[in-house]
Design a protein that fits this description.
six-stranded mixed sheet, globular, 3% helix, 1 helix, mainly beta
Length: 157
C-alpha cells in the first residue's frame, strides 16, 4: 500500500507496507510486517523532513490492556503519551522501532530539531515511552523478555 499524507492514523489489519509523505520537505512513514490487530497513530508536522520506520512482528504486538499503561502514571508520562501514538513536531525528527511479541505498549514524541529514537521491543507486556525536546537528542533502547519498562525523557537546546 502507498499513502500520501501529512498525518497518518493507521488501523493495521493483515500484512502491509505503508509509506506516507508530505509536499515540500518530505515526511516519510514506513510500516512493515504482519500488522495483526494493531493500532498506530502517527502525527507529523507538515513539510518538516520527519521519518518514522516501524517494523511489526506477528500478532497483537501493540495491543495490551490499558491498565498496564496506567502503571506509567508515577513516571509522569501518561498524560502526554498514549500507547501506539507517535508524534513528531519541529524539523528533521527520526524514529526507527521494531516491535515483536505480544501485548507490548509503545509511544514516542519528539519536538525541536534533529532528534532521533531507535528502539527494539521483544517479548510480552513490555512498555516503552520516549519523549525528547530540543535539538540533537538521541535515544536508543532494547527490551527483551516480559514486563519490562523503559522511560526516556530528554530536553535541552
Amino acid at each position: 500500500m502507498r499513502y500520501r499524507a501529512v498525518s497518518a492514523g493507521l488501523l493495521c489489519l493483515g500484512m502491509m507496507t505503508a509509506q506516507a509523505s508530505a509536499a515540500g520537505i518530505e515526511n516519510t512513514l514506513e510500516i512493515t510486517g504482519s500488522a495483526g490487530p494493531n493500532t498506530l497513530l502517527i502525527d507529523q508536522s507538515p513539510e518538516a523532513g520527519h521519518a518514522v520506520r516501524v517494523s511489526l512482528g506477528e500478532g497483537a504486538v501493540t495491543a495490551a490492556p490499558l491498565a498496564l499503561w496506567r502503571d506509567m502514571e508515577p513516571l509522569g508520562l501518561t498524560g502526554e503519551l498514549s500507547p501506539g501514538r507517535i508524534v513528531q513536531t519541529g524539523l528533521f525528527q527520526t524514529l526507527t522501532v521494531s516491535l515483536s511479541g505480544e501485548a507490548n505498549l509503545f509511544a514516542a514524541t519528539q519536538a525541536g530539531q534533529g532528534n532521533s529514537i531507535t528502539g527494539m521491543v521483544q517479548g510480552q507486556f513490555n512498555q516503552a515511552a520516549v519523549m525528547q525536546s530540543g535539538h540533537g537528542n538521541s535515544a536508543s533502547f532494547s527490551q527483551i523478555g516480559q514486563r519490562n519498562r523503559v522511560v526516556i525523557r530528554q530536553g535541552g537546546w
